[in-house]
Amino acid sequence: MARFNTRAAKARPTSRVTSTGRVLRTYEGGRGHERDARSELFLLSVANFVSQQTFYEAGADRDDRFAGLVRELAVTDPVWTAGLLGWLRGEGNLRTAALVGAAEYVKARLAAQATDGPSNRQVIASVLQRPDEPGELLAYWTATYGRNVPKPVKRGVADAVRRLYSGKSLLKYDTASKGYRFGDVLNLVHAAPDPDRPWQGELFQYALDRRHNPDTAVPPASDRTLVAHRELMALPVEERRAVVTSEGGAERLAAAGMTWEALAGWLQGPMDRAAWEAVIPSMGSMALTRNLRNFDEAGVSDEVAAQVAARISDPAEVARSRQFPFRYLAAYQHAPSLRWAYPLEQALGHSLANVPALPGRTLVLVDRSGSMWGPLSDRSKLNRPARAVAALGVPAGAGARPLAGQRARAARPDAGARRPLGLDVGPAVRPVEAQPGRRGCDLRHGARAAGEEGGPGGVRLHERPGEVPRGRVGAEDPWPLRWPGRHRHHRGGPPPLQEARPGPDRH
């Protein structure tokens, strides 16, 4: 009689996230399994906003744990660690964690005198993708390890400076609020101009002059943007608003690299309708999305609003901005006018294009217990789970139909399933029956259905023949089922559900 080779035999599921086999206790005393260092660092990295408080862990403790894992793996597995940091800043779109990780990578390898794997200089340069980031990395290094900056860090920063610094980036990021100005960075790393960019020599000199002699600094004549900006700044305050309202005012602001933040200070007065309509054509997609409320309060015309809506919902603009989906939900919640609702919903759908296609059927579970209701960061008003996950609608993996109507990308849809597909996860857990024909919710329904802590909400999965499950935010029944030991690591799938009355949150 066969003991293993039976029709019911199934392959054991595997995961890239693995444990060491050591059994530990969770924060709340539950039974758990210790992850290996790579799995722990990956999971921490993708949710690490650096120095931000979390429900179970203080910001400083979380930062120390992250730095310790990076330092350990930088020595024992440098190729994997360098690849993670580059991915984190690139496709992962997480800036600060990648910068901190690169600095800790170099610190650990210099201390261990390690020479194998990717060079320190290469790792530093790989995480610097925006013109203000060289100064950000140097500020972290000097605040943490003092003013003695090692050569690999200087050379990596210098490589990034040659790639990133330009006239427009100087106007946007070289501001008095920064501790490390462009000129400070150039002084510290001694970056030489790129031979293929002959104009960089004059630009670097101007950046140094702006830092040390701002009253006499003269922009290079070869840079039209810097020259035009200087001309605008030289205008008397009482003449500036006339420039904004004049014919060709918008083009003049754009030619001078005038950002909306700089325009507000330059005018030394309110940002009224005329000011916004003049600067909107030169604003980026992220800036437009974050100022929708300001546009409404200033009363921008319907024609200009239509142009804004077209830009923020354009697939190419969404891809270029690299914004996370929850940013569009946050914009919807703060914009009082419903004229932005559909463009934001389209933009949110386009922002899901980078979600990889997953084979088979995908189940999305959203934890809605007390620990998941803190803000995303100290400056964010968007809470962690219900609002952020409602922004997805909730598309269950890549099999979901995104909100903008993109084609589902499931590898193998399960055509005949009619049984329960998922669970509502709130203060308790219950199975959810499939409901045919209903598409994922839009932004308005997603935001409202998210509920409050301990109240209605959760994940409800739907399907119809020929499609894999789709997720949406749903309501809970008054007598749900509790999933015992929710935060334990179970092998081979979840434990059986047991009947239970709603009780206190034990997350």
Task: Outline the fold blueprint.
Layout: E1 19-25, E2 31-35, H1 37-45, H2 59-76, H3 78-89, H4 95-112, H5 120-127, H6 133-145, H7 151-164, H8 167-173, H9 182-189, H10 200-212, H11 224-233, H12 237-245, H13 249-255, H14 260-267, H15 273-279, H16 285-290, H17 292-298, H18 302-312, H19 315-321, H20 325-334, H21 341-351, H22 386-390, E3 422-425, E4 429-432, H23 443-449, E5 460-462, E6 470-472, E7 481-482, E8 498-499
Antiparallel strand pairs: 1-2, 3-4, 5-6, 7-8
Helix pairs in contact: 1-2, 2-3, 2-4, 3-4, 4-5, 5-7, 7-9, 9-10, 20-21
What can you tell me about this protein's structure?
The protein is mostly helical and 507 residues long. The protein has 23 helices and eight strands. The strands form four sheets. Strands 1-2 form a two-stranded antiparallel sheet. Helix 7 crosses helix 9. The longest helix is centred in the N-terminal third of the chain and has 18 residues, at 59-76. Mean pLDDT is 78; it is low at 393-441 and 449-507.
- Report the count of strand segments: 8
| Sheet with most strands | 2 strands, antiparallel
What is the share of helical residues? 40-55%
Anisotropy-based shape: globular
Low-confidence segments: 393-441, 449-507
Structural class: mainly alpha
Q: Per DSSP, what share of the residues sits in E-state strands of 2 or more residues?
A: 5-15%
Distance, first to last CA: 45 Å
Strand order of the largest sheet: 1-2
Mean pLDDT, all residues: 78
- Cα-atom radius of gyration: 26 Å
Tally of contiguous helical segments: 23
